[in-house]
Specification:
Blueprint (H helix, E strand, L loop, with lengths): L1 H33 L8 E7 L6 H12 L8 E3 L2 H15 L15 E10 L5 E11 L3 H4 L8 H11 L2 E6 L1 H8 L3 H18 L6 E5 L12 H12 L3 H10 L5 E5 L8 E3 L5 E3 L12 H4 L1 H12 L2 H13 L3 H22 L6 H11 L4 H12 L4 H30 L10
Parallel strand pairs: 1-4, 1-5, 5-6, 6-7
Antiparallel strand pairs: 2-3, 3-4, 8-9
Helix pairs in contact: 2-3, 6-7, 7-9, 11-13, 12-13, 13-14, 13-15, 14-16
Length: 423
């Protein structure tokens, strides 16, 4: 009799283990479905433009090297492994005093990199926040005539029109020569800036002008703000640059950011006018993460600007005073209003509601997320899955606020970095 009892217990135990394993597999599958992948997060297209030798490659490789680890930021960049190998090879070439600088982008070679901005989720696992497709166009497309039948420049114009953000590279080396009284440098700089501006006028996106090799301009003023103000005044003398600022700054963000991919103690200009590495130089980049950190805050600001102020205030007031199901309706109205504006800015017919509300929570109305949770609690008890989704959303929102904070710090330190119509 005891044998039958033990057999029955064993069968029951095996069955229980089987049920438990099936339950765990279902939970693991559900958790896998809930965990956001890069295919589920917004992906923004960034196009970088600049003349040959302006420092586009150094900017890119130093930017990735600086942002590939979490550090104190709470977020970091990842990329496909083969792209990481390329970026690391370039950085190693930059950092080695015995090697030459990396070669520039050939006219026929457009470099494209797929970055993912990640943070740590509530469980400690990597949590994707957003994707960044970074296209670096050859400088020759800006300054050189193309072969008959070439479609490279037409492709460039099309990519600019569709880009969510533009980065225009201005070579600090030629600014240095211009400020030293070199007339040829002044003409060259004016021509390249004018050509770049003529392409950027097609865009409806936020724009960031990056002054590379900022370390070469260290003696132009007592501090970075004075130097940037001085350079800004010189650039505003260029008619195309001035007119772009006049036309665009009222409806979108236009920035001027000084950047050094290597810092002030790694290279110097020799007697022949060439930038040479120092044998005992140390790489200490300046503002290298800001051009990418500014992409999402600048997009959100443009979304806000595209919403009528009265409509936004009315939608927020309705959300503040509503309760129960009325709050859900008011939330839906606000989401529709912001989604329509986001569609205009991001070029999407129907932007994901989750993206719009996360942006609104991080940059706009700080208590929207709590109102969503209140509305859900009013109707039903939150499940574990919903709590996990809320925790993931809160983690992503922290990153978005950190991006905004990085931009705020820059503007506080360098007010001249925000371009506006001054004429």
């Amino acid at each position: 009799m005891k044998g039958y009892v033990w057999l029955a217990l064993a069968v029951a135990l095996i069955a229980a283990v089987g049920v438990l394993l099936r339950f765990r597999r279902r939970r693991a599958k559900a958790r896998h479905r809930r965990e956001p992948s890069i295919a589920q997060v917004p992906v923004f297209d960034v196009v970088a433009l600049g003349p040959r030798g302006s420092g586009k490659t150094l900017l890119l490789t130093s930017m990735y090297h600086e942002m590939q680890t979490m550090s104190a930021r709470g977020y970091h960049l990842t990329a496909p492994f083969e792209q990481v190998l390329t970026l690391n090879e370039w950085f190693g070439q930059v950092a080695d005093p015995a090697r030459d600088w990396p070669s520039g982008t050939a006219v026929a070679d457009t470099r494209s990199f797929s970055f993912t901005l990640q943070t740590r989720g509530p469980t400690g696992a990597p949590l994707p926040v957003l994707g960044l497709n970074y296209l670096e166009y050859a400088g020759g497309l800006l300054t050189e005539a193309q072969a008959p039948g070439s479609t490279a420049q037409a492709d460039l114009v099309a990519r600019i029109e569709k880009a969510h953000a533009l980065i225009g590279i201005i070579d600090g080396f030629w600014i240095r020569r211009w400020m030293d009284g070199d007339g040829e440098a002044r003409v060259r700089l004016q021509q390249t800036v004018t050509t770049m501006i003529s392409l950027m006028l097609y865009s409806h996106s936020p724009m960031t002008f990056v002054i590379t090799k900022w370390d070469l301009l260290a003696d132009l003023g007592p501090d970075d703000e004075a130097r940037l103000r001085f350079v800004r005044q010189g650039l505003m003398q260029n008619q195309g640059f001035r007119e772009l600022v006049q036309a665009h700054s009222a409806t979108r963000v236009v920035r001027l950011i000084p950047v050094s991919a290597i810092g002030p103690a790694f290279a110097e200009v020799d007697r022949d006018g060439n930038v040479c590495k120092l044998a005992d130089g140390e790489i200490r980049p300046t503002n290298i993460d800001v051009p990418l950190a500014a992409v999402v805050p600048d997009l959100w600001e443009q979304i806000e600007r595209s919403v009528e102020a009265d409509e936004l205030r009315a939608a927020m007031a309705a959300l503040s005073t509503a309760s129960g199901k009325g709050r859900l309706a008011a939330l839906s109205d606000l989401g529709a209003l912001l989604s329509e504006a986001a569609g205009k800015v991001l070029g999407l017919v129907a932007p994901p509601a989750g993206l719009v509300l996360e942006l609104a929570t991080a940059f706009g109305a700080g208590d929207i997320d709590e109102r969503i949770a209140d509305s859900l609690r009013a109707d039903r008890r939150l499940t574990d899955a919903e709590l996990e989704l809320n925790a993931n959303r809160a983690a992503r929102q922290r990153v978005l606020r950190q991006l905004q904070s990085r931009v705020d710090v820059l503007e506080g330190r360098l007010p001249s970095s925000r371009l506006a119509d001054e004429v």
